[in-house]
Amino acid sequence: MVEAIVKVDERGRVLIPANIRKMLKIKSIVKLVVEGDKIVLKPLEDPLKQIEELVVKGVKDVEVEIPQLRKVAEEELLKGV
Length: 81
Prior knowledge:
The chain is of the alpha+beta class. Helices cover about 45% and strands about 15% of the residues.
C-alpha cells in the first residue's frame, strides 16, 4: 500500500505526487468516484491515444491536428462521466 499526505488548495485542487502518478501511469485524466466517505481516483487512458489508434493512422499532419483531437476526445470522455 502506498500512502501520501497532500494539501488541498483553496480551489479544491490536490497534487498527486509524481512517484504515484508514474506508478499508476496517470497522464492527464482520472475518474473520481465517491465510495462512502472515500474519494477514489482511477486512471483513464488518454483519449487522444484512443483516437490515434482508431482514426489517425496514416495521417501525415497529425501534429497539427493533435490539439483539436485532444479537445474533442476529452469532451466526449467527459460526457460519459
